[in-house]
């Protein structure tokens, strides 16, 4: 095709696309004028579903659509990793470890908005508190913050995943209506529809976690703005404060343990179906980025494309949902890839425009809080998208990036991920080849006689409720994980052994686990109830009424509270994930004033303020606390205290890889097919390479490292090894705001050269490797002895599982352990890292073999 013919074809395609958008706008006007006929709507859905099944390629079969696809493919072919986005230089990038730091940074980021906010989330909880404790920061609840910004004239655009309601509980409907009811400047889209649509999506989800503010700054990573994600470096598992309810950190549904019970009726956000008195919360470890720089424009492009595509499919009839234009134009940068974008002109002509200041005569933007938004990092955005999620042919530039970065690694790879499901061969249901890349790189190093290490940190168990021996989802994901690591014939370990090398010399796997004590002496609480005439559950209902504030919708008039059942002395029916509780509805006080009086009456009945004697949490002792576990006091019997010690895995939700302390990839994508193939879940990630380099060592030899990658890796290692100070939230809310809690471009405090930092500086040194492996081994031994946790190498089959798992409440101390024994042993725990038990259920071949693994089973796509 000649250049003239190509140009004519492109203009012809632009005309077709523009006509489609104009038709959408006309439909919006008709929708405003005419009430929708429900019968015709149902008929339309039926026709659309038939159409989609008849022609699954319906968005890519017209000549102009094929031309659009050709242009996109040409653009991607010119970029590293075949990404839609080009490399961008001079970005200022910051990492934020765990929700405490990121959500504070997010609160500042959102509060800085002057024109617009874009949000992509798998789940968004409007009632999430971004600063804690909530009693000291009521104005920093997410919905209240967004309402303030909308009232100031900021336009807010949100896209959330529309869940399969029969199997998932996050209620995107509640998210949409709770936010849109706040102000007309807030628009929320839910996607995809699952029944009666041309796409008929059954399995896949929108999984990105993205925020953009004013096209100036962005946030990308693993943290959804939803319940269950906020956490500190301490990773506390208890949050009960009988005489100081204002100290609560995890209000209502935010106190959660997905291994015990998934979220229930989240629109009733003040209720809780997990018992504060007996059940530990599941701690949440995650990592997110904030950044400023020209790479923000590529995140904006991703959002605008998604928004406009969903608008066309679902919301073109409603004027609330604008068409959006890309902010950068040919005048800003004539060589920008966006100039060739097949829809740029139509979006520009018909869409709402927001300013950008990264390209063109106004670049760069002004300083932010006295700091230049221009930085030292090279960034590139990658994504997993396809026709169902984005209206484009499949792009899997995230998988391409992971594989290439692994292939180009010289010394060391560190991985944290929520899943680890991959393949080393091109057969079986799992298709992504990240595991193959790891094997090839390790064998290459082994043949060359070079020291090369891969360290992988993943969850002990998937975050699904139920016992391992009973739940197919748990068994399928565990089986897929072990097939990737060390079983099934083509695992990483087996392939390395086939090449003649010991895999343990090159790649090892780890988990995170912690402990805590629930500050609820049974006799102390009973005494308070008797003296006050107020039950603990009534006090909880009063506290719940305070969370709702002045607005108190009818559906929150009753509060559901998980109440422990009366002790029958028979625990034979209990397993590792069964609560011995019943949900009880308690009527909430009518007013906040009445609620405060009830709480005051209950709390003042205590013979002394419990919090002055008994710590709210003891999780801080796994870090560098000034006190020791043996010094902790208690107001109750020894048996009561023993019954209040609990353990739980620290759930790893981060999705990152650090290579040679130089390169980092981080985002929303898991190590599994759902995230990596491109035609499954939609994902976004960024590759970061800092040009700010300094001298360090790798295996004792001089090695230049990048500041961003190195400081992130060292801080993660220090947290996992317990080499950081505890992170506490003062009840008055006067917590010192550190640099780690501020968004980019405010620089991080320099911790290089501190004694703890020096201990983890060289990841290949024998001293560090001994510190890490020895800590993981000791921690694992303690948790096995005190709590008999699974997975465990002592459990090689289901029979051993039945006899090993103690018949106690979930996460509680094994019956034969004494209080003195548990305090002595738990005092030896440092940080949260524990060994991965590679021999767990190794004798159960059905876990990793069978028809579901030898041929493609459509249902397995849910888990892989």
TrEMBL record:
Residues 9-18 have a biased composition (Basic residues). The keyword NADP does not apply. Its EC number is 3.1.4.4. InterPro entries: PLD-like_dom, PLipase_D/transphosphatidylase, PLipase_D_euk, PLipase_D_fam. Keywords: Hydrolase, Lipid degradation, Lipid metabolism, Repeat. GO terms for biological process: intracellular signal transduction; phosphatidic acid biosynthetic process; phospholipid catabolic process. Transmembrane segments: none annotated. The keyword Repeat applies. Residues 1-20 are annotated as: Disordered. Pfam families: PLDc (PF00614), PLDc_2 (PF13091). Residues 202-229, 648-675 form the PLD phosphodiesterase domain. CDD domains: PLDc_vPLD1_2_yPLD_like_1, PLDc_vPLD1_2_yPLD_like_2. One of its GO terms (molecular function) is phospholipase D activity. Gene3D superfamilies: Endonuclease Chain A. This is Phospholipase.
